[in-house]
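Support request from a user on the community tier.

User writes: "When I paste my C-alpha cells into the form, the page sometimes reloads and wipes my input. The last time it worked, I copied everything first. Here is what I submitted, just in case something in the input itself triggers the reload:"
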C-alpha cells in the first residue's frame, strides 16, 4: 500500500511513517519545517521522501494521514482532499498496527517515552520486539510477536489502539483543551485500560486507584498494598538503584543510569512487564546499566565547563522532577533553566504551577509560547511574561537573544519544552564557543 504522511517530521508521524515502511508499504510525506529535525534520522535512513511544497504528484491509490497540527485549511490538506484521496486519522492507522501484534501499550501523563524505551532495550536484547517511541523512532519486523508502543491520551488517541497489556505510569490533569476535568481523564484511561487483558499500574497514584478495572491488574509502588513493592531507593550522582519485591519475596536489586524518583517508578514497571514476558531477572539486571534514554530526555552535551541538558519536559510536574533529577546528578552546580511553554491552554491553566516548578532552578528564562495547533483567541489571554512576573529575577529570551544566558553559563543550563528548542541550543552553543 501507499501512505502519504502530512506533518511527517512530527515525533509521532515520523515514527508511524518508519513503521509503515518497515511493514513493506511505500511511504512519503510532507512538512512545513525545512530545517533539520532529530525526527528525520529514521526517515532518511529508510530513504523516505519528504516534500516541502505541493508540486509533486500523489497517486490516487494513496492513503493520507495527517498530524493534528495541520488544519483542514492548510494548502496541502486542501490539495489531497481535492484529489479525492482516502484519508485516515493518524491514531486509526496506528491502531490498525497494534492489532497485528501482542501489543504492550505504555500510557500515563508522564513517563511514557522512557518506560517504552526501557522495555525496547530489554526486549531487543532478549526476545525481540517492534516498537513505537514518541521521540521519532519506530521499527517493525514482522517476525517479532511483541509491539511496545507509547500510547498517548492526547485527543483520546489511544482509544483506537488494541493492547494486550497496558502499563499506566500516572494520571494527572493535562490537555485541558481536550478534557473537561480530572474525572474525564480518569474515565478515559479506564476505558483504554479495560481493553487490555492485563494492566500493570502505579498503585501509589491515587487517580489510578479510582479506575474500575475489569481485567487482571498488577499494582506496583512503594506502598505495602501493592503487588510489587519498591524498597531501598537510592538516588545518587551515578544513577538510581532500588530493590523490587513481589509481596514479601525479594526479586532483586536493580541499578539504572537514570535520575529522579519518577525514573525508579518507570523502571520498575518495565521490569515487571519484562518478567511477565519471560525475560529473566538476571538478564534484566545485566541490561539495565547499559540503557540510554530516548531523544530529548535528559540529553547532555558539554561545551567548555558548561553542561547543556535538552529535555522534553512541558508539564509542571515534568519540569519539577527533571530539575530535581539534575540536582541529583549535579548537586554542587548552579542550575539554569530555559523553558519554552507549549500551547496556550496548558500555559494558561498551569501558570502558577509552572512558576513554582521553575523556581527549583537558580535562574529562570522563558521564551514566548510556542503553539502550532491552537488559536490564542480561543483561550484566556496568556503570555510567558505572566509567568515571569511570578518568578523573581527571571527573564524572557528567544532564538535571537539566547546569548543573554551566557552570564549564567557556569554549571548546568537546561533547555526544556516539547516544542523544539534546537535553535535555542544551537545559538547558545555558538555563543559559548565564541567566548571559549
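"...and here is what came back when it finally went through:"
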Amino acid at each position: 500500500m501507499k501512505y502519504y504522511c502530512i506533518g511527517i517530521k512530527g515525533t509521532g508521524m515520523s515514527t508511524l511513517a518508519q513503521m509503515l515502511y518497515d511493514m513493506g508499504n511505500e511511504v512519503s510525506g510532507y512538512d512545513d519545517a525545512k530545517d533539520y529535525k532529530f525526527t528525520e534520522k529514521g526517515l532518511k535512513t529508510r530513504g523516505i521522501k519528504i516534500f516541502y511544497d505541493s508540486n509533486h504528484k500523489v497517486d490516487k491509490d494513496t492513503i493520507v494521514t495527517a498530524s493534528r497540527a495541520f488544519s483542514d485549511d492548510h494548502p496541502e490538506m486542501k490539495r489531497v482532499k481535492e484529489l479525492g484521496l482516502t484519508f485516515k486519522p493518524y491514531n486509526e492507522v496506528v491502531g490498525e498496527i497494534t492489532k497485528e501484534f501482542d501489543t504492550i501499550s505504555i500510557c500515563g501523563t508522564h513517563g511514557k517515552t522512557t518506560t517504552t524505551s526501557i522495555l525496547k532495550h530489554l526486549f531487543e536484547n532478549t526476545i525481540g520486539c517492534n516498537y513505537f517511541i514518541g521521540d521519532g523512532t519506530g521499527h517493525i519486523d514482522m517476525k517479532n510477536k511483541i509491539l511496545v508502543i507509547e500510547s498517548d491520551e492526547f485527543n483520546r488517541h489511544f482509544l483506537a489502539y488494541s493492547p494486550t497489556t497496558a502499563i499506566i505510569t500516572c494520571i494527572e490533569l493535562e490537555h485541558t483543551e481536550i478534557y473537561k476535568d480530572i474525572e474525564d481523564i480518569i474515565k478515559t484511561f479506564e476505558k483504554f485500560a479495560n481493553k487490555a487483558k492485563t494492566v500493570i499500574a502505579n498503585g501509589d497514584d491515587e487517580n489510578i486507584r479510582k479506575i474500575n478495572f475489569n481485567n487482571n491488574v498488577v499494582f506496583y509502588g512503594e506502598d505495602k498494598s501493592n503487588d510489587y513493592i519498591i524498597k531501598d531507593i537510592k538516588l545518587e550522582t551515578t544513577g538510581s538503584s532500588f530493590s523490587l519485591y513481589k509481596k514479601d519475596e525479594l526479586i532483586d536489586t536493580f541499578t539504572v543510569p537514570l535520575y529522579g524518583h519518577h525514573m525508579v517508578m518507570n523502571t520498575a514497571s518495565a521490569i515487571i512487564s519484562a518478567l511477565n514476558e519471560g525475560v529473566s531477572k538476571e538478564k534484566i539486571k545485566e541490561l539495565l546499566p547499559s540503557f540510554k534514554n530516548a531523544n530529548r530526555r535528559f540529553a547532555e552535551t558539554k561545551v567548555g565547563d558548561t553542561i547543556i541538558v535538552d529535555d522534553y519536559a512541558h508539564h509542571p510536574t515534568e519540569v519539577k522532577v527533571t530539575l530535581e533529577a539534575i540536582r541529583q546528578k549535579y548537586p554542587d552546580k548552579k542550575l539554569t533553566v530555559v523553558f519554552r511553554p507549549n500551547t496556550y491552554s496548558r500555559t494558561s491553566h498551569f501558570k502558577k504551577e509552572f512558576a513554582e516548578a521553575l523556581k527549583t532552578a537558580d535562574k529562570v528564562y522563558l521564551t514566548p509560547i510556542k503553539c502550532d495547533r491552537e488559536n490564542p483567541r480561543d483561550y484566556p489571554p496568556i503570555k510567558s511574561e505572566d509567568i515571569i512576573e511570578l518568578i523573581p529575577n527571571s527573564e524572557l529570551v528567544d532564538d535571537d537573544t539566547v546569548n543573554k544566558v551566557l552570564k549564567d553559563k557556569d554549571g548546568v543550563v537546561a533547555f526544556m519544552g516539547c516544542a523544539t528548542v534546537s535553535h535555542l541550543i544551537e545559538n547558545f552553543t555558538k555563543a559559548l564557543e565564541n567566548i571559549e
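Agent notes: The reload is a front-end session timeout and is unrelated to the input. Residues 94-290 form a domain with the UDP-N-acetylmuramoyl-L-alanine:D-glutamate ligase fold (CATH 3.40.1190.10). The mean pLDDT is 95. Escalated to web team.
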